[in-house]
Protein 1
Amino acid sequence: MNANKTIVIINGSPKINEPSASEAFADIAARHFEAKGHKALRIHAGKSLRQKHTAEDFETMRQSDALVFIFPLYVFCLPGLLIRYLQDYAQYLKEHPGTKAQKVYALVNCGFPEPGINDEAVRVIESFSRAIGGSFGFGIMFGEGGMIVGALHAPFMKKVLGALGGQFDQMAEDCSDDAAHPRPTVALRPSVGSRLYLFMGNMGWKQGIRKAGLKRRQLYATPYME
Ligand SMILES: Cc1cc2nc3c(=O)[nH]c(=O)nc-3n(C[C@H](O)[C@H](O)[C@H](O)COP(=O)(O)O)c2cc1C
């Protein structure tokens, strides 16, 4: 048993120069992994591709003990850039045989309140893990993910953040030894009612349309039907 493992957190959000839920989740994960004595390294898949930094980043991933993919649900699946990143990493491993079996974990966050809709995306990471000869630990499905950016310090977030921290601690403990510890994927969401969440979401649309200098009724425009 060796507590000091290297865990690479890969942010798969296409957002690069704006706040993203995945980045906020990655910050929390890194804090928990380091508190358990591991080294937490960070990679942003979008930046890695755009800055043509993939060879260095894939080598960092290849040398690590565990990979944690944190990304948003896009049309009930993975963002396209992350799919490409996974394919390119799998190809890199083929070209660099002899990589030790890595532990793989996922956190998928979505805009809708129901965390369960992230299940298929978690299973894509599980299948990817099998394809690279890794060992999939478990996934975290997080509903209303945007709240982690907009309401991180709100009192109603305390409970879900506590549960999330517990899951990251579990990942850290799983990584501490080389044996596989597969666990069921967990579902989390903030304890704010769906109605309040939808109300807050609608506020966001209304503020956005005002900022764009347009009228609220233009949110309901159907230009392709006219
Ligand atoms: C192109 C696109 C597709 C999306 N598809 C879904 C979806 O199918 N289901 C869902 O609940 N949220 C969907 N969302 C919302 C995001 O998953 C959500 O806003 C998430 O918190 C963004 O995370 P990020 O800030 O890490 O990018 C979508 C957002 C975008 C921009």
Protein 2
Amino acid sequence: MKRLINTSEFTRSSSQLAGQVNGSELLRAADLLFEGRASLEWQVAGTQKKRVEGGFESYLNLKVSGVSQMVCLRCLNSMEVKTELDRTFRLAKDELQAAKLDQDEEIDAIVGSERFELLDLIEDEFIMALPYSPKHENCALPELPATKIGAKVSSNASRSQQIARENSVNSATVEKPNPFRVLAQLKKPNP
Ligand SMILES: [Zn+2]
């Protein structure tokens, strides 16, 4: 599977590439995932737009969608997380120009190259799209009253519950998992 692109050529010729990637290939994301489980589809498209003052501006559009498993911070069981992202980046010729573009434009800038590794970009965006504090909407494990935490549960669980509580404001951003699907995932043998 070809994942290295020459960004200048790719955008000039309005090229497109698509593929699939599994959690086992995403080494940096693996720590955030339950048993490194993720199954993603990605699509990259290059475009160029004419500048008013002459020349072109180059853009990369990245779409990533798929399902992965994370550990619920409340019950410590696995939970399904859906990823659906669609982002466009303006290509810069070096870090300096990228920093300048990032200040001026609403669109994010990335540095292009003759050997641009798409997987790095896909993994970066996938990690940033994962919930910061993954939690089931309804856990099987009942929450203990705050006063009894520490006395009744292991340090790991109480820490997770604490984190869960601290981040409960964010819980609305976590997708509601389908309990049957989660169950099916749990019953599946390791790939
Ligand atoms: Zn849970």
